[in-house]
Amino acid sequence: MEFFQVFNSLQSKLLNLTLVQLPKRQQYTLKDVSAHCTETDCWMVIRDRVYDLTDFMQEHPAGSDIMLEYAGTDATMAFADKPHSLDAWLVLEKYIIGELVPEERMFDDSDYSS
């Protein structure tokens, strides 16, 4: 468990390094995300951030079936439970489209740079 906490902390710090203030991200509810649950429209929540992974479906090393299993849901635990490299976390950032509304977040607000 300690490794997971250290890795998440490192990941948050690396992904939140900015020299300029980023614009506020669009906010979505889990209900909003749940409408995007197909191979041609695939959104997921990971660590309270919302990702449109539609274009990544066919590129995923384990195939699109595993992605479809979590499409339209909070996939944080599924993502964290599988071995993903730092590169995977960085690739993930290309697909960010927003974040969960504050009342539905599960992680500390200090993890956000928006």
From TrEMBL:
The keyword Nuclease does not apply. Signal peptide: none annotated. It comes from the Eukaryota. It holds the Pfam family Cyt-b5. InterPro entries: Cyt_B5-like_heme/steroid-bd, Cyt_B5-like_heme/steroid_sf, Cyt_B5_heme-BS, Cytochrome_b5. It is found in: Membrane. Residues 25-101 form the Cytochrome b5 heme-binding domain. GO terms for cellular component: membrane. GO terms for molecular function: heme binding; metal ion binding. Keywords: Heme, Iron, Membrane, Metal-binding, Transmembrane. The keyword Ion transport does not apply. SUPFAM superfamilies: Cytochrome b5-like heme/steroid binding domain. Gene3D superfamilies: Cytochrome b5-like heme/steroid binding domain (3.10.120.10). Belongs to the cytochrome b5 family. This is Cytochrome b5 heme-binding domain-containing protein. It comes from Adineta ricciae. The lineage of its organism: Eukaryota, Metazoa, Spiralia, Gnathifera, Rotifera.
